[in-house]
């Protein structure tokens, strides 16, 4: 099994979700949970972007000792100096430099020539390496960049001292086959690429972020970047819990492992959802409220006989206490009987039949039948007897 490093950017790219604004104590609380979750690297923020972010990154770097802490920086000396002040107390100070390499970004956003982008990247990587033992360089908008230009600049920034090369799908534009091919091309073309960790960073604009990240892993990437709950700019970043669970559940197919303590996933997801105010959609993979809930009678009957009939992930694996049998209009008598048993109420077969009839009637009018509704029906039948 090869080890894939998990780089969490919930506190930086995740915080760039519209409407999310965490204060430094909230960030620290999340950082502590990310440490418990076992991420290899956490990106705590962008120190030069604001005084608040500087302070948050500094507090996290000074506190978190079991996880490598990094911060984002533009390829300018003042950003790097500010990042050093924030990160110098970290167990292993690490800097994340980025500069765009796609024609559209270089021409319209940066107003720089490709040669200037190479020169600035090389100079700033070597400047950063004077202090930081670990420097990651990201080619922003890599997936819309020219591959030969990318190969050339990657070789140069590695020679300048970069220890990690990240090729982000900044706009969520790539496909699994294309992204995998791009990493394979770089590994076959860049002579010194074996000296660094290769990293992927996917956004979810086309809903392919998990598939793209896994394709990158299959093509030699040793680090996956993403966020918990998939929060982030626009449609978000790749959801790290989905990547980790996909690798785990299909380990027959994917010979890779991560350091994540999977049973801390639910706690991490809940905390981040609470502090960011970004709710997790009910049907979200791995962690949504309905991910371990069954409503139809046929499914409920199967799960009661053997959960593996309809569950490929056990809820306990991700820290969810148990599955739930959701009682609605598609539910059958088995699950209903089970619920009555849970209440500790004894009914005869005839009474169960009668109560189930009342329950079914109610489901025609009410979207969500609660435990209280069922309790009331059952008690009415019981006391009528
Ligand atoms: O999506 C992106 O390109 C980024 C970079 C700053 C790494 O978040
Ligand atoms: Zn990003």
From TrEMBL:
EC number: 2.3.3.13
Keywords from the named record: Amino-acid biosynthesis, Branched-chain amino acid biosynthesis, Cytoplasm, Leucine biosynthesis, Manganese, Metal-binding, Transferase
UniProt cofactor(s): Mn(2+)
Recorded superkingdom: Bacteria
Stretches of the chain forming a coiled coil according to its record: none
Role: Catalyzes the condensation of the acetyl group of acetyl-CoA with 3-methyl-2-oxobutanoate (2-ketoisovalerate) to form 3-carboxy-3-hydroxy-4-methylpentanoate (2-isopropylmalate).
Name the record gives this protein: 2-isopropylmalate synthase
Designated gene of the protein: leuA
